[in-house]
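Researcher: Next sequence.
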Amino acid sequence: MSRNTPPAVLADPRIPFPHTEHRLVCRTNPHLFLHDTSDNSPDDLARIDRARTACGTCPIAGPAASNHNRELLLLAQRT
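Model: Next structure:
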């Protein structure tokens, strides 16, 4: 029996993987980020909003990180 699994996409080695020693919310409160596609009760939606807000302040996933990662990607594309 053969599997029709798509090949893995490897990360571009020119862009460093983000590491941090900060205590990130996703590491300290992972329950905020566990969502089922059917989670739509008021409590679930409030938890999703708290997770979204937490990501907005993250040094890896937040807006400042996104801008920094975009700059790294542009630099990598030029080389």
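Model: The two ends are 42 Å apart (CA to CA). The longest helix spans residues 63-78.
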